[in-house]
Amino acid sequence: MPKSIFLEPKSLLAEDSIHFTDIAINAYNKSIEEELSIFTHQDLLAIWQDMAAIREFEIILNEIKTKRTYKGIMYEHMGPAHLSIGQEASAVGMAFLLTPDDHIYGSHRSHGEILAKGFSAIRKTEDKELLNIMQSYMDGIILKPLEKGHTGTLKELAAKFLIFGAYSEIFARETGFNRGLGGSMHVFFTPFGIYPNNAIVGGSGSIAPGAALFKRVNRKPGIIVANIGDASFGCGPVWEGITFASMDQYRNLWNKDLGGGLPIIFNCMNNHYGMGGQPLGETMGCRFIARIGAAVNPDQMSAERVNGYNPLALIDAFRRKIAAIAEGKGPVLLDTITYRISGHSPSDASSYRSKEEIEQWQEVDSLMAFRNRMLKEKVFSESELDGARSEIESMVLQMFKLAIDLEVAPRISTDSDLIERVMFSEKKLERCDNRQPELLQDWSQNPRVRQIKKKIRTSMLDGKPVPKMKTFNIRDAIFEALIHRFNIDPTMVAFGEENRDWGGAFAVYRGLTEALPYHRLFNTPISEAGIVGAAVGYALDGGRAVAELMYADFMGRAGDEIFNQLSKWQAMSAGQLNMPVVLRISVGAKYGAQHSQDWTALANHIPGLKVVYPVTPYDAKGMMNTALVGTDPVVFFESQKIYDYGEMFVESGVPESYYEIPLSEPSIKKIGTDITIMTFGPALYSALTAAQMLESEHGTSAELIDIRSACPLNHKPLVESVKKTGKVLLVCEAVERGCIMQSIAANLTQLAFDWLDAPPVVLGSRNWITPGAELESMFFPQPEWLLDIIHERILPLKDYIPLTNQTNGEFSRRLRLGV
Ligand SMILES: Cc1ncc(C[n+]2csc(CCOP(=O)(O)OP(=O)(O)O)c2C)c(N)n1
Ligand SMILES: [Mg+2]
Fold first, then answer.
1. CA of 113, nearest ligand number
2. Distance between Cα 53 and ligand 2 center (Å)
3. Quick check: 2 pLDDT over 60?
4. Local structure of 446: helix, strand or coil
5. Model's pTM, two decimal places?
6. Contact 165 CB / ligand 1 (< 6 Å)
7. Ligand 1 pocket, 199 CB below 6 A?
8. Phi-psi label, residue 559: left if phi above 0, alpha if psi -120 to 50, beta otherwise
9. Which residues are placed with Cβ below 5 angstroms of ligand 2, an ion?
10. Average pLDDT, stretch 82-92?
11. Average pLDDT over the chain, rounded to an integer
12. How many A from CA of 101 to the centre of ligand 1?
């Protein structure tokens, strides 16, 4: 059923103009009386102490990093330290009202935000719950050294826990929030609502909208804050994240009771610098980050510029913006003015700015300004403020001392298998939440399901090929796996370009539009980074997402999201976070150089991703089922050439019932004795033809193995086959250079050397652009190429005359030319 947003020429062609509303700049102007009616003395003291703790935390890091000593304590910190000295008020103002249900995502410069959010969460959490969090988190490993001799309150203990866990993480200790696997730029602690911080500038800009999507779709309380720098607004993925977060459909097409626009604040920590480049006046043209909101939607993202040097001004802005989000008016953009006194990193000589500029900001330093105001308005006495400050400072110092003490805070041992264990979570999770899944119809009423019911689940029936229209094909197989999980996991969503009414770019989703509400299946903007980033954020916040990229060639557009985000957060969280995402990527054909590339090798090169490429209906259903019940990110490649293919290898056909195929096992498609042909992707079918020719025309029996999964991959059955045949040809349709088959060939040379009669040979596509459809046979391995290469390099075939030049000499010539 199309959504029918009728496009009326009359109104679209009529003369009109666009009206903007004014964007407030630093409009906060409350008197102390007003402030005292909003904040208690305790609140104001907490704000003061939080800022002082952050300042001290970073001064220690700065001194240690630059001088290797602080107050007589020696320490050498090897890792980075991106400090935010000067920005404390903006961190505390941002976090003050947030509850543990509100999740922040941030950047490399996030120590202040983490601590501020942690302090705020501690204040809002019951003691019993706090104790439970600290005792259960990594079996209490962070808490244990702190309990001994602690005499204060439980909240004070939790504050120590926060500082100690953060320092320990920065110094790569086992007592770090992520056992040191994250490090300085990525400290996070989800029980306090502190989600991943990203060393990729703007990385959180595309991920955080997915977390907000999770809140909306699953009706969870809380909002998401993406704390990103001013220079990150030059990053495409940030813009894509904003575009994703501001789609009209949330308000226009989705169930009203979901709450409207995504609950997210893009909070620009605007310190006016990248590293040394200046967005204002040099590298960007918008002058005010707040202006960007006006381009995004009629609400102008409720954007405004706020004085982030006054924590109370920012708290006021957050109060108003949280209210706007509650009315469904998300996303929101805040342009929070701040300044970092510290360098970008301790090695920064500040060559890009003048001493006078830094001095002028020091004169309006937010801690000093807050203190002066509190004293002038007689809210606190000097001794109250200074006492509170020195109390928190000495606690921070004490925690620093503990965190650098190898007895108290050891590193994971060098022979630990921790990193290996957390690369994948390897869990089976039937559902990510216990609610009833939302569906629009009973599957038995679904036209696609009914149509599939009538199909034949093999490619041959009574010795004759089944007509195309009647064949249960790879599309149907993936569809069956998807609806199985949609029925069980209420959090499961699928999105991507043309996913809904179009039925998915290649019609895999046809039929789902009738069965699923908008919020479980929807179209996205043409924003590959936004799509994959949202899937990552959705999973980090607790849901299961299936994202689709129309063509493998578009992986470059989502490069960071696939290579640095999807792949890494499980391990960087030391196994605290899961990533139940299936990224479906279709591999094209017939569409030339930018739409017909097999880029499986790019995904396979990145640790932390499972990479599969099933090419039969039986494998596609079984492997999709496994991917959808797992907790690891699976990059699931599909070939456009063969979506219509029926099952040729499993005689009993594709079962109607549920089954799983492990994502590590190659599949022997044909047994043979003289040579092994291994394939990955649709090359299976060229290899099948070649194997039949070998057998019928040359009396050579080929064993045919489809790798199916590049990572993980059990090499044992491959080695077994090579032991039997002594010869192996590895074929795929990716360009030969650097393809997946190259590394398998290298592995087999190591693992099966003694049984090999000839070196393993790899046949991929030519190291060229993919030419137009009519020329594709020059590019992709053809069945006769397999025979030619076997004849020339592995096993001479009697009386055989090759059709193409597959000799080592020719191979060597091409290598020299890089083609
Ligand atoms: C994608 C990417 N490009 C470049 C860098 C190197 N880099 C680290 S921080 C930084 C400047 C970031 O400025 P901004 O976003 O304003 O954040 P700030 O450092 O000011 O907090 C740069 C260029 C990076 N980490 N990631
Ligand atoms: Mg900046």
1. 1
2. 22
3. no
4. coil
5. 0.98
6. no
7. yes
8. alpha
9. 229-231, 271, 273
10. 97
11. 97
12. 28
